[in-house]
User: Fold this.
Amino acid sequence: MGDFIKKSNRIHLIGIGGIGVSGLAKILIHLGKKISGSDNNYSPIIKKLRRLGIEVYIGQKEQNINSNIDLVIYSQAILPDNPEYKKAKELNIPVLSYPEAVGEIMREKRGIVVSGTHGKTTTSALVVCLLKSLKLSPSFLIGGEIINLGNSGVGKSDLLVVEGCEYKRSFLNYHPEIAIITNIEKDHLDYYKDINDIKSAFLQFTKNIKSNGILIYCGEDINLKSIAKNLKINSFSYGFGRYNITASNFKTIGKITEFDSFYNGNKLGKVKVNLWGRHNVLNSLSVIGVGIYLGLYWREIKKGLESFKGVHRRCEILGEKEGIIVIDDYGHHPTEIKATLKCIRDVFPNKRLIVVFQPHQYSRTRFLLKDFANSFSLADKVVVPDIYFVRDSLIEKKFVNSEILVEKIRKNGKEAIYISSFREIVEYLLEIKKEGDIILTIGAGPVDRVAKEFLKRLKK
Assistant:
């Protein structure tokens, strides 16, 4: 473990209410550290942290930082003008970003890092469920809530599963034994120059893999293929076709997808996972790769995959009333939206699909505007509220808005409407609903509130 965390007794976390930082707080408590933290908003996460004895301040003020604190860790969302960050610098208290701190902890662990533009959270969750089902007791930090397990946990073994985000090259702080890369696409273009810049970051990440370790990557991905072909490290490729780990005969029956899996051409067996869609078969194949590398038997890998209950906000069915099914999903990139709509259409081919999509970030919406407009071809109706404002400069708000996106969707022949507020969207859905509808809320912001309020009103 890195010296900063080893030497520190009292650690303060700025942005402790975030899903990653809150999980890190739990791991630090387990290491015997005295933890405090701050966040701008109260949330159920903060309630849970307070129950663990963590002092959490609501609001970030310089008086929350004093010379008794040995180390300050900050969320990636925190900027240098943050009053607590500035005060820590004034007092010469060591400061680490969240990925730097996780990287320090990983140095003395058997790190398993899941990276890629899409599928990180589901794949990380599958790895955790595989290891936990076999009593391998991993610690884990991922970007979503695994049903019945949460987003983080402290295990007894030296295995540590981490979701590695490429934003600001955060994942370059990690030196894993096992690295999964699910895919590489254009995203975070507020930070990266272009796809080649993104590929260079992933290439650098592969160089962090320990010499005795392995890279597990999707062989179908063109950008990944171009990186992997010149690497001098152990690797497994996976996909539908001629790869190390492959699948065939996949089909979705109800809430379950089943497929036959193969390793180097030899059939392993049939597996049934609690997931929908081709993309999740690929995610499952990468986890089979983890099991093979760790020397697990096929029956153990199968048991682990089939123990998976799902992740909140990943194609999650929230409820059904009057024949109307309400689903929520975290997808916030055009490729993710297309994949989610495709698997919902496969499962419910004849139902009317109404999608409430909240764009996440003005910059992402602007850079990928055409792709977003093309991603709703399988929807019957699209409702778009205001763009979720996060990480953007105020200047970005001048370049794009939801009305522009709606107009582009309409030009593609889809019925689309802009309704600014969640409250008005719920009222609109209640007006137009019909028996047999699918209502999908999708986006990385708080658009799930629409689904939950609509369902609540429906049940009344």
Q: What stands out?
A: The chain has three domains: 3-98, 109-306, 316-459. The CA atoms of residues 72 and 95 lie 5 Å apart.
